[in-house]
Amino acid sequence: MNAIIRTDRRLSMTVVGPVLGLIALLVAGALLNPNFLGWDNLTNVLARSAFIGIIAVGMTFVITAGGLDLSVGSMAAFIAGLMILMMNKALPGLGVGIPVVLLGMATALIAGLGAGLLNGLLITRLGIEPFIVTLGSMGIYRSLVTWLADGGTLSLDFTLRSFYQPVYYGGVFGISWPIIVFALVVIIGEIVMRSTAFGRHCAAIGSNDQVARYSSVRVGHVRLMTYAALGMLVGVATIMYVPRLGSASSATGVLWELEAIAAVIIGGTVLKGGFGRVWGTVIGVLILSLIGNILNLTDFVSPYLNGAIQGAIIVLAVVLQRESKADG
Amino acid sequence: MKHFVSGLAVAVALSAPAFAQDDTKVIGVSIPAATHGWAGGMNYFAQEAVDRLDAAYPQLDFVLATASDPSKQVNDIEDMVATRNIDALVVLPFESEPLTGPVQNVKQSGAWVTVVDRGLSVEGIEDLYVAGDNPGFGRVSGEYMAQALPDGGKIVVLRGIPTTIDNERVEGFQQAIEGSGIEILGMEHGNWNRDDAFTVMQDFLSKYPEIDAVWASDDDMAVGVLGAIDAAGREDINFVLGGAGMKEMIKRVKDNDAMIPADVTYPPSMIATAIEVTAVGLVSNAPVSGDFIIGSVLVTPENADDFYFPDSPF
């Protein structure tokens, strides 16, 4: 009897842990600075979380299926650069307007899909470790964007940027587009993960790919699809990113891959695969952005220690979950 | 294959001097690769200086190598000594510590050594030291801030990547605004990065309802700061002062943009100064050893034309 209660309490801890962490941060923020819970600050934080968030949803599927993608940050920088070049090139022909923006968006989605498929094909068809493949493509995309920008910064034409800007800053009912798109991606991701064969197959492959294969799951195909979807989502994130400052350089998207992976793990997805939770990833993303936000809003600790605090919270989140996994 | 390539390299190295005149001198230039805006500009000016001097002085040959990390830079320098027998080395060290030994070896081989911007860990190796003035950069920025806000005011400061360079700049700035009635509300690290600066500035705007001016201390960070101010629609901020001399910012100063009334230089073209002076030292009797500190200059609409290089990537 006693043992059952203990297991129950512990089981719920994996679910409740990240939520409690998020609530604790919200309370701490509200106590430290009265502006923290203001509408402006909360929408700022949500909008800036959207890039990592959209990518992290895709990463949740990749990790659940037992994979990993280190290239997403560089890929985002490369796609942003490509998008800016395409739009600037097409500008004289198309003029400032919706067609040129749509062209930019299509470029981002196609480039993202292509880059994701390339990673996926190398991993599934040639059987190379995902860590190695994506470490390689990480370096390749980072160099490519530096090369495209000639070592400097690629900037979107100023008038075009002003026209495209509402995609980041505008919105409906006071909620900006990045937040809306992020929410949509999360809802679709949650449904796919929970209620479709694809989501179940990801978990099955991550948990034991041999058994999945014997159960006639198309292991290679499903894995390929996770990388392709992630690449596409990187494209979506870039579509939101470019209108913000209208530029891309080799400093764009640095360490986004690690932030996305950390968010996925904080949210309760198992790093070695087999179990994924999309809504948990959202909590993970919010926790990471809120820490940065709170540290900026207070003079509580030296800014030199921001990284240390973020690191400590990531480890703490995973420790909480490990404890509850120990029985299972 | 590897043997073939290295064999080829040796063959090229051996044959090159045979075609050259006896009194031809070789200058090696080793710089970090264009991994951020300022370094991109520095690469551009290095290449331009090499092309120009190569044409101007037939008796000089140049070898230009860019390195993406310190160990690659060490290899570059060793290769220059081994295969090109350089008479002079112009080096902008990636990091001081790892490059000190290799540059010392070059010096011992009898070559002239010019060190640019980042000093080595051991003093007295270089014949010529060309560098920007970081405390001066902060001081010029602070003096401008004090003059632009004669009645004092509230400002926020964005700092760079935590380094000695950043500390020297901020100290210079703080000394210059002392007693001017300017109050620094907050300082955070924007890491010389547009996106980080955007985030930090958004949070500053949430935290402080009234800000008179921003010292972004860098033009890339100024871009992020301006983005955050525009998005928040805040009217209280009078101006943003960046730094370094990015062409887009110089253009805005030139066009009398009220938000960007001035800029403070930290020119990536200092590499060109270093190469030029080294070349003069090799081909003439003019003495060129010593320290050459390039001051940070305040750019205003009146003199902005002199600092505007539309072809440079930075």
From TrEMBL, chain A:
<keyword id="KW-1133">Transmembrane helix</keyword>
<feature type="transmembrane region" description="Helical">
    <location>
        <begin position="224"/>
        <end position="242"/>
    </location>
</feature>
<protein>
    <submittedName>
        <fullName>ABC transporter permease</fullName>
    </submittedName>
</protein>
<dbReference type="Pfam" id="PF02653">
    <property type="entry name" value="BPD_transp_2"/>
</dbReference>
<feature type="transmembrane region" description="Helical">
    <location>
        <begin position="94"/>
        <end position="118"/>
    </location>
</feature>
<dbReference type="InterPro" id="IPR001851">
    <property type="entry name" value="ABC_transp_permease"/>
</dbReference>
<feature type="transmembrane region" description="Helical">
    <location>
        <begin position="169"/>
        <end position="192"/>
    </location>
</feature>
<keyword id="KW-0472">Membrane</keyword>
<feature type="transmembrane region" description="Helical">
    <location>
        <begin position="130"/>
        <end position="149"/>
    </location>
</feature>
<feature type="transmembrane region" description="Helical">
    <location>
        <begin position="278"/>
        <end position="295"/>
    </location>
</feature>
<feature type="transmembrane region" description="Helical">
    <location>
        <begin position="254"/>
        <end position="271"/>
    </location>
</feature>
<feature type="transmembrane region" description="Helical">
    <location>
        <begin position="12"/>
        <end position="33"/>
    </location>
</feature>
<keyword id="KW-0812">Transmembrane</keyword>
<feature type="transmembrane region" description="Helical">
    <location>
        <begin position="70"/>
        <end position="88"/>
    </location>
</feature>
<feature type="transmembrane region" description="Helical">
    <location>
        <begin position="301"/>
        <end position="320"/>
    </location>
</feature>
<feature type="transmembrane region" description="Helical">
    <location>
        <begin position="45"/>
        <end position="63"/>
    </location>
</feature>
<keyword id="KW-1003">Cell membrane</keyword>
UniProtKB/TrEMBL annotation, chain B:
<comment type="similarity">
    <text>Belongs to the bacterial solute-binding protein 2 family.</text>
</comment>
<protein>
    <submittedName>
        <fullName>ABC transporter substrate-binding protein</fullName>
    </submittedName>
</protein>
<feature type="domain" description="Periplasmic binding protein">
    <location>
        <begin position="27"/>
        <end position="274"/>
    </location>
</feature>
<feature type="signal peptide">
    <location>
        <begin position="1"/>
        <end position="20"/>
    </location>
</feature>
<dbReference type="Pfam" id="PF13407">
    <property type="entry name" value="Peripla_BP_4"/>
</dbReference>
<dbReference type="InterPro" id="IPR025997">
    <property type="entry name" value="SBP_2_dom"/>
</dbReference>
<keyword id="KW-0732">Signal</keyword>
<dbReference type="InterPro" id="IPR028082">
    <property type="entry name" value="Peripla_BP_I"/>
</dbReference>
